[in-house]
Amino acid sequence: MRNILLLTLFISLVTYAQPKIEIPVNYKQIEIPKDYSEDYRKLNYAEDFSIYLKDNKIEIFKTPRKKDSELKFKNGLLIGSDHGEWGGKLVYKSADKEISIKDGNIISIFEYKEKVYFLEGLAHMNTNYGEIYEVENTKDKFTYKKVLELPDEPEAFEIFNNKIYIATYENFLIIDNWKIEKKIKGFWGSLYPNSLIIENDNHIFMGIRGGIVELKPKDKIIKLYAKTN
User: Fold this and answer.
1) Gap between the Cα atoms of 67 and 82, Å rounded
2) Residue 73 clears pLDDT 80, i.e. is over it
3) Tens-digit pLDDT profile for residues 112-146
4) Using alpha carbons only, what angle is made at residue 119 by residues 117 and 122, rounded to the nearest 5 degrees?
5) Is 134 within 8 Å of 125 (Cβ atoms)?
6) Counting Cβ atoms within 10 Å, is residue 200 exposed (0-12), middle (13-18) or buried (19+)?
7) Distance spanning both ends of the chain, measured CA to CA
8) Alpha carbons 110 and 117: distance in angstroms, whole number
9) Residue whose C-alpha is closest to residue 196's, from 219, 166, 152, 225
10) Those residues with Cβ within 8 angstroms of residue 29's Cβ, 6 or more apart along the chain or in another chain
11) Among 36, 100, 114, 210, fewest CB within 10 Å belongs to which?
């Protein structure tokens, strides 16, 4: 019995460790470019493509234009806008009313553990901040409270196994119980993370301008893939 249990554990660990997600065939691993180098500049001027998963293979699509984030709330919508250096705001809109809740660059609105939250942040010139707020509502009154301060602007996020995964302007964060469980310093400042695929907490893919990033946080591994043709 003991040998069977050990074998089962070994198979589980091997299965967990082996990546199941396939990189597109026309992408290859390249060396991560140094800041301000010519290779970095080429990535910065490349087209924006996002990623999604289909049949365990990463598919590429052109990143759509940024639009307002929306979330159904009671008899209306919570709507968040983000116009970069020109600001933004969070409002509640129904058929008969519009209530302004907060000024700020609203990146995304989401539900998490039966509560409503929004990501706010901006990276522009000397400004680079990020925050997560909880929305509270009683009748026609909306309030908000900050639940977590982020190191920089949030740009892409996913919720997986009750943890929040956020690609920020230049970091990658894993958040558990409103604490930053893991913070990885990235190379992608000015390469604008736009999408995430989470296989597990030690195998993550991120779409950025000009390429695909593979992250293994526990192993402190970061790889970069770029299109070959």
Assistant:
1) 8
2) yes
3) 999 999 999 999 989 999 999 999 999 889 999 99
4) 160
5) no
6) middle
7) 53
8) 5
9) 166
10) 223, 224, 225
11) 114
